Amino acid sequence: MRKIIHVDMDAFYASVEQRDDPSLRGRPVVVAWRGNRSVVCAASYEARKFGIRSAMPAVRAERLCPDAVFVPPDFTRYRAVSRAVREIFLRHTEHVEPLSLDEAYLDVTENLTGLPSATAVAQTIRAEIREELQLTASAGVAPNKFLAKLASDWKKPDGLFVIRPEQAQALIAPLPVGRVPGVGQVMERRLATLGLVRIGDLAVAEPDQLHRHFGRYGKRLHELAHGIDENPVSSDRARISVSAEDTFENDLPLSELEPHIRRMAARTWQAARKMDRAARTVVLKLKTSEFRILTRSITLTTAADSEQTLADRAVGLLARVELPDSVRYRLVGVGLSGFEAPSEAPLQPGLFSEQDASPED
């Protein structure tokens, strides 16, 4: 049986800003550029009391808390702190799978420091982060990645929670299905129409029913609802893409997709900025009302340098969708791929070459 820890830094970007500028401590801090198209990268816990959350439009955050202090993000500094956190992880195990700058999975089935339990390792890691970096982290300890990630949210901020194998089923059953990876708002509504509102409902659902409605993902849903997750911690996994997509309540014509593309670009950009690499390929994904999937992509000569660049390039790809105006679309997605080390992909605007991905059916 594996021993997995999920470590999640608390309000990472905002906490780094408060650590480095004492005048910000105890104040509602919003890490974001100001502007109509800007989104919140992070919010301190003081700001969250006003309802401010990551990925929220910055103008809305300003309305919710006019006294909030807006700080432009400094990703170079956040990456440096993230590397220091990772060095602490590597003292305890070689098996570290970073998910972003502020969270990672660790497999401590066998740890390097001789500590007697995974709980002791998690306690030590959190203490070292606090003492050496003056930051706090929450951690979850469990026999697999799914449960460990759930556990790390249990006592945030600055908390530690352990899910033991014999406790898992009872602990996760009351949680909403939205806590399961891959279950977004649209999927949550589809599950609700089947009477599946809690994870416990999924656990007692017929596997054939889940497969009939959700295909192979139905099996995954059933396994997770029983606390089963066989995916190992992969320390050498290099993330090759990042994306966000949304399924509409009602199918839309091509002419009405631009605001939705820009909204997905904002979400993708926020996720991409957590990675210690830069990307040069912008991907637009569309799904028609008949479930035909089309992708269009463009490869820039230099990495995408801003959320607006990403959004503008994604919107520009609409011109290369050669389907009749009568076609309606049920989903739109925006992605970034072609990730390179920052030193290999300078963030500056430039000419670009085009590469058109073949439609997928």
From TrEMBL:
Claim: Nucleus is one of the keywords in the record: no
A GO CC term attached to the entry: cytosol
Coiled coil spans: none
Active-site residue numbers: E103
Pfam families in alphabetical order: IMS, IMS_C, IMS_HHH_1
Compartment list: Cytoplasm
Cofactor: Mg(2+)
UniProt remark on cofactor binding: Binds 2 magnesium ions per subunit.
GO biological-process terms attached to the record: DNA repair; DNA-templated DNA replication; error-prone translesion synthesis; SOS response
Self-association state and partner proteins as the record states: Monomer.
Record family assignment: Belongs to the DNA polymerase type-Y family.
UniProt-listed PANTHER family: DNA POLYMERASE KAPPA (PTHR11076:SF33), DNA REPAIR POLYMERASE UMUC / TRANSFERASE FAMILY MEMBER (PTHR11076)
The protein's name: DNA polymerase IV
